[in-house]
Amino acid sequence: MPTPDAFEMSTLNSSADRHGAQMRRHPAPFLHGPDHRRHRGIYRRAGQFPKPVFVLILAILGFVSAAGAQEQAQEHPLAITEIAAGVFVHFGAHELMTAGNEGAIANVGFVVGDAAAAVIDTGGSPREGRRLKAAIRSITSKPIRYVINTHAHPDHVFGNAAFEQDGTAQDSAIFLGHRNLPRALAQRGPFYVGAFRRTMDDVLDGIKLIAPQQLIAGEEKLDLGNRILTLRAWRTAHSDNDVTVFDETTHTLFAGDLVFLQHIPVVDGSLRGWLAALPELAAIPAQRVVPGHGSATPWPAALDDERRYLERLARDCRALIAAGAPLAQAARTAGLSEMSHWELFLEYNARNATAAFAELEWE
Ligand SMILES: [Zn+2]
Ligand SMILES: [Zn+2]
After folding, report:
1. What's the CA-to-centroid distance between 96 and ligand 1, angstroms?
2. CATH number, domain at 103?
3. Distances from the Cα of 282 to the Cαs of 20, 255, 289, 295, 322, in angstroms?
């Protein structure tokens, strides 16, 4: 039986057949969950709100379920793996975000130095965030000084509320992200929250969209106490607000969704930008990567599958464009030869192909 999202996907495909032009103007604005078209009204209206109204919306959303914060007392810690000395990861399920998986579909992790810990992504729900925090507290009592969001997608930021200052100096974390992250959260955050509320219900109680206090434009170094993390902001690739985190001590790279393994890559920024970023990524002197989705893997071999998929998508779309094929045909056929290599292929490939076709059409 198809999942609700797989069903939505087939609806989207047939819709693309009939409304190719319209699809072209709206390539995949919504990721990791319910199809956006049912809620496009919300999306469009949100996009048109002036800034002060946005701030108000964010504030209201933040306090909708303040009561939810009360239930954090004792969460069951997330299962974590120490993949290198002082580097811990919870590996997300290769699924769409649901109440059942508590939104825990992305890899989230933390790094512990002599003086403090840093969190890299907070998960797909406040509950996952609280469980991540409980996992950190099972390892160390050092302050959680930094919370880094690799980008704006819900599976990476919906757990932020768990790490907001809770009145103790111990946990007054600074939130960091790409200089484009505040804009992305403002433009899409309220829509994401509204859409996932419908499917995840009280798992999202206490949700709060927290914009970074410290913005990354180029490179930034954080000192955790005899342990340096290098943060780097990227040009538009997976999204327009991707940040990577490199642990200089163990040469571990947290790549966010710039790297996918097993889980099909999701194109929400620029296919050409992403392909252009791959050699720069490969040049990072890492020994291993924690991808946004998939296993921790030796570097840079970890890029091979993703590169092959993205190149295939680009080649197929360019060939279709050269042949004068319509967008709907790209949605059906581009990248199809990659199907057996990826989980969630049917959930995302047609969207990727649609976005890629629209981007490459204007080369
Ligand atoms: Zn993700
Ligand atoms: Zn993402």
Report:
1. 10
2. 3.60.15.10
3. 36, 11, 11, 17, 31
